[in-house]
Amino acid sequence: MTWSEVAMRGSWRALVLGVAVLVVAFAGTGTTQVPIQDRQPAGSALRPAVMGPSGGVSAGHPLTTAAAFGILLKGGNAFDAGVAALLAGGVLEQDLYSLGGEALVLVYPKKEAKVTSIVGQGWAPHAVDVDWYLSRGKTLNGEGLDPAVVPGALHAALTVLEKWGTMSFEEVAAPAVGYAEHGFPMRSSTARAIQNQRALFERYPGNKAYWSKPDGSPYKPGETIRLPATARTLQRMVEAERGARARGRGPAIVAARDRFYKGDIAREIVAFLRQHDAPFDERDFSEYFARVEEPAHTTYRGYTVYKHGFGSQGPVLLQTLNILEQFDLHAMGYASADYLHTVVEAMKLAYADRDSFYADPAFVTVPAEGLLSKAYAKERAALIDRQHASTAFVAGDPLRFDSQVKQWPYWKANVQAGAKTARAAADPQVMASLGQDSAGVMKDTTHMAVIDKDGNIFDVTPSGGWVPGAVILGDTGIGMSVRGEQFWLDKTRANQIRPHARPRYTLTPSLVFKGDTPMMALGTPGGDNQDQTILQAFLSVVDFWDDWYPNLHAAFERPRVQTLHFYGSFWPHTPGFNQLNVEATVPDAVYEELRARGHGVKRLRPFGMSGCATAVMIDPASGNRFAAADPRRDCYAIAY
Question: Using CB atoms within 10 A as the burial measure, which of 22, 70, 164, 264 is most buried?
Answer without folding.
Answer: 164
